[in-house]
């Protein structure tokens, strides 16, 4: 724990969570579990969720009223890191994306009838959900361009569109769909977020998109979706009409803390694996991997880079707690690209240290190498964040790079 | 084609091969073919082999006596690059590792009866083979440490041992096993290479090791093997007894040219994909990816790095042709780490340019991202090659880093 | 100011110091002042020191008893950053190395007569001092190897030796010399620190060593020194005999915070220069440097890296305040290489953005490019710190890399 | 020598030149000569020029008619590398920039009277010259923007303008000035090159610009120039009016080969210095620098990168010889940024290996660290070349990034 960001409750909570992760979840990291589809291990994980509840650790991300702890973002971030040391941690604690984001969203913006019907079971871990925004026809780096339309007809919206990277749609009970409701508005006010039940007629999960060779399934999948003449009542609108981007933006602030702390957990675990291996793998009689400076260099660089990234992210989390996400947008851009790149470097070094073993699924590293490459792409590619950060900085120097 | 290394026959041959690869093999790069096991596409590829033969392009790596062209290594390297632009190229032309290496080996060192029984059908593409050296219990960076033993009993060897990363064992007709025959000899003269039929009693393919989440099968797999009391006649010895490392070393010189030129083919194709996408993907009305300097930087750096690596590798190939591999060991070390790292950077940039599409199996890049990460590990990890290269250089400055 | 590390007094102090630096010192950055020897600008700077005193800002690094503020290391570090934005800041505030380190040292360990004679005028800025440790004959990365001897004769030490990189010896009133007094002791207990007046017979300043083409002079110089039969009373010993390394070590903890915060000040100022230029330099009609993504990338990366490094250093400073330097040696190693490399990258990017102007002495950047390259070498080269950090980490994993 | 590019005459010539450089010029690398102004060592170098003539090595860059050898660019490039291993090599062989470029220019484009008066003594090494293009008011990355005007009056041009980075103006006999003669023409056809005697009234050498702290003098200087009402006859025009950029472009092709081969010479010499030091510097009893993997990594990476860059540059040189510079503009862009960055990395590693010694002027490295940082800026900054290269590549993919 970083003492700068420690709190009383973290001091008691974190070790308990860490112990749970180490004793209950690390043993699940078998070759089999790291290679087969998620649905195979899902029953086991659902069993583990019971233990989480028994241990009184359920609902870490929730307000007190919902059985949670009202943790600050900075506190939750530190928990998130510990959960991320296992690929199953977030799911077992029901704090997995995209459900955690949808939980926050529904909490703040959903009408009561949706809360009752969807939020409650979501918080209980009885259903899953997804978020449907990205479209294959338009560059993800420019989310305001969107082809999906929601047209009013009577009391309903009729939704038509084509999406992909709708993560965890497979098996989800509902979808938050981002669709253009106000095509005549200015470009940031055209879209709305609408809750669509997965079983609504016209909703088609075209396929789980194969990523790095795996289509995956259930929670661990990324769907291509078609919405054809899908009819939902207008009361399924989340927040005000036209506020789709505003809400997405709001979601992204804390969302990036979640992601970044997850990256740090992954990096920290990879670091642990590299050190363990370096300290025990013999190269020749009496010489261990860790005796070699090349390996020492990997270790030293990784240690410094992880620590630096963690401080950067937790500072931002605290600032969001204190000032709101809008006030620290630059920091949020900064942590995204800095941390994602750091994590991928650390994972890569850990693989290299493990040699042939490193690329196998006998050890965790290749799981992250494949599943987390997208970290530099989703929620804003490196290039998008760097340009945005520089743009804001240059504005303070009097240059509006968007003046044209 | 790099004019410095062009030859008359290459000028006629390369365009034909390139056309074959583009028209016959590129269309096979469907999402399905990039994700399913190799055995599913194998029948199609075997059909393609017939077309290769019809086109008179079979046996590119073979001596004239065996229906080949006696190409120099430098010539064949350039063909290898073109074949590597498709993940199926080498297999379709029967020049895939490890068969190409075994072909060379048997040619030079196998007794006539083994040539008749194994080399002939291997050259004809009727059987496949594998090479069994690496052991999980010992660091791959130090190949002289080995637990597999071949003990003489009567006219036979009795082989016992445990290997892994025996690539393409699944479906192979025979194995070249590296085993200690002379435990009392100096460490580089203890091992021998022995041909073992796959169906010999005591040979067990324990599993195809899952790599990056995939066990794969058939040619595209990497097996863990057990040899328990496996009996083969001593006439199955390849080359002299105790010459195992010498032969392995000899194999590695040209083998690294093959690998490196394959890396360059992969990089070149990834470069082509990144440019195509950059030139056509719209970010917003009127602005394409390629208009952005970040993307331009990826393109420019990649172009320079690929060209530099190709020149380095072809220079080395020519030197091997002229002086033999032993004379240019430093160059061989150099190209291995330089080219593998270059290729992985280019593939990574190409993924980044493609955004979310880049990590999917709808496009070729993630195939290489996962299958080729091991390029920095097998046949000598980066660190091993760098240390070896520096050691030789420092020797010429009067420092023997192994003096202790 | 980083709010995590802000304190009440910093909130009032820092803006005043910053204003002083900006209004009094930035105007001194003429081409002339950046190229001529330090002695030329020294009188001006000594005038500025009077203003510092008038403004009540003198003695920031001192205890209350000596007219200072008893600032914590973490507080002083933040001041140090602001001072470092000008190449003259530290000198004008009398907090320049090596005097600040010698001040701390004499405070803690000097006998009263030395404090009276040397510490008092040092704190008053009336004299300067230097520290003589590194020897050309021995690798700086292994400070325990040392040829300088101090042999007892009567009540005196007779010192003989050859040193270099005795920074600021030119014009200094005294030298703290590290010399072997106990050659029979274990290697970390052989040396002692002894105060030697600059005018002691046998002390020769051989030359100010030309660094990057400049020998420099006065405070801004690095001397080669000869000590030949130099006689000083044994009461000139600082701390206990044989404690030379212990004291040096103690000095290095806070010393590295000083250096690292200085690096951050340099990086921050370079960042400011790059942004100013990017926001105003026209490339063609209507297009400014800052409109280019390459430049934006430099800006974004620099912003993230500076922030990360500052958090890392200030965390360490706080830990030293709380736990002492010995408890956080790993962190101290970490910040040294991480911050020095970051600073040099940022300076380099700032130069690149300025084009031809960047390499001239019409702007500050080349001053730092040349004067600060040594940041990756002195006080422990990158490689030394990385190896030390990894060694300690691996120890916690059970591997003692020094076991042999 | 790279055997791919060896020729008969190189085989005899190169060793002689290398021996001359090593025996005549290496001994000049004293601390004094590396720090004092060029004019101090100039007499010694002019003496060395006599030895060059005696050795029959004068005029390596000249046509046969002028006493040269008509070397190809590819041959001369290899000589250039060897000369560059000493900071004095090019000057001593009279092949230094900008004179070599002016020699080529006058040869091809000057009227007879200028050849007689200026080219002859230039080739004889009796006078020096300079080239005045860059202007402080306009970004060097866009050379078509220019404020210097040459207006016709009677038979003369009247030139007014402000330039800087007019290298080697100090002591030069004449200047080739780039000035706008045709302001109404399209932007690439506005400027002309005009020969201006240094002593023409109105020509002022404002100052030698301090670079990295040094103004330098004589050949080793970079002047700021004012042209005020400077009158020269129109017969001083070089080439056709309006052809200024065309000629500059033509100059840049071979010019970049010269620069890049010089970079390679610098890198190769730095490599030699790092290996020598690594092989002999003791860290502790029995352990040398070169025993450390960090150092080995520096050596191995440098070896590979230098070789790769040399092949890239010599390939381009040969292509220019065969096809002309216009045909391989992409390659010329590529080698410029690739080689300049490589050289600076190698120099930096060599400094790091030397520790404190590395930043001093007791050894050659810091000379290059400071004098060659501009390599990534002049003759096209990295960013300009990368964008240009990518632009051309993307054009072949159907995207005209300049379409707007």
UniProtKB/TrEMBL annotation, chains A, B, C, D:
One of its GO terms (biological process) is fatty acid beta-oxidation using acyl-CoA dehydrogenase. Keywords: FAD, Flavoprotein, Oxidoreductase. One of its GO terms (cellular component) is cytoplasm. The keyword Flavoprotein applies. Residues 8-126 form the Acyl-CoA dehydrogenase/oxidase N-terminal domain. Residues 130-229 form the Acyl-CoA oxidase/dehydrogenase middle domain. Its cofactor is FAD. Residues 242-394 form the Acyl-CoA dehydrogenase/oxidase C-terminal domain. GO terms for molecular function: acyl-CoA dehydrogenase activity; flavin adenine dinucleotide binding. Pfam families: Acyl-CoA_dh_1, Acyl-CoA_dh_M, Acyl-CoA_dh_N. Belongs to the acyl-CoA dehydrogenase family. Homodimer. This is Acyl-CoA dehydrogenase. It comes from Persicitalea jodogahamensis.
């Amino acid at each position: 724990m970083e003492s700068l960001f420690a709190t009383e409750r973290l001091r008691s909570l974190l070790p308990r969570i860490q112990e749970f992760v180490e004793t209950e979840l690390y043993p699940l990291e078998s070759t089999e579990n790291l290679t087969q589809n998620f649905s195979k291990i899902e029953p086991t994980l659902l069993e583990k969720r019971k233990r989480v509840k028994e241990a009184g650790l359920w609902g870490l991300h929730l307000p007190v009223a919902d059985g949670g702890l009202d943790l600050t973002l900075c506190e939750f971030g530190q928990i998130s890191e510990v959960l991320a040391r296992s690929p199953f941690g977030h799911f077992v604690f029901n704090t997995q994306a995209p459900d955690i984001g949808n939980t926050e969203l529904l909490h703040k913006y959903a009408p009561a009838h949706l809360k009752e019907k969807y939020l409650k079971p979501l918080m209980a871990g009885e259903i899953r959900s997804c978020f449907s925004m990205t479209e294959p026809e338009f560059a993800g780096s420019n989310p305001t361009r969107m082809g999906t339309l929601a047209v009013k007809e009577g009391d309903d919206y009729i939704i038509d569109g084509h999406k992909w990277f709708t993560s965890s749609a497979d098996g989800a009970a509902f979808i938050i769909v981002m669709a253009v409701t106000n095509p005549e508005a200015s470009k940031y006010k055209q879209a709305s977020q609408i809750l669509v039940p997965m079983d609504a007629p016209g909703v088609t999960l075209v396929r789980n998109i194969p990523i790095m060779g795996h289509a995956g399934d259930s929670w661990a999948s990324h769907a291509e979706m078609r919405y054809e003449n899908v009819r939902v009542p207008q009361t399924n609108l989340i927040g005000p009409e036209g506020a789709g981007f505003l809400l997405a933006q709001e979601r992204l602030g804390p969302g990036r803390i979640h992601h970044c702390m997850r990256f740090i957990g992954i990096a920290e675990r990879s670091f642990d694996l590299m050190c363990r291996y370096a300290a025990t793998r013999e190269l020749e009689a009496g010489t261990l991997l860790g005796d070699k400076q090349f390996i020492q260099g990997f270790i030293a660089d990784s240690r410094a880079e992880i620590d630096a990234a963690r401080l950067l992210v937790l500072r931002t989390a605290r600032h969001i707690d204190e000032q709101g996400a809008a006030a620290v947008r630059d920091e949020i851009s900064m942590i995204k690209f800095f941390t994602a790149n750091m994590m991928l470097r650390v994972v890569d070094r850990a693989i290299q240290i493990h040699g042939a073993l490193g690329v196998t699924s006998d050890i965790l590293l290749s799981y992250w190498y494949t599943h987390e490459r997208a970290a530099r792409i989703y929620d804003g590619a490196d290039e998008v964040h760097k340009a945005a950060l520089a743009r804001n900085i240059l504005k303070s120097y009097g240059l509006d790079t968007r003046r044209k």
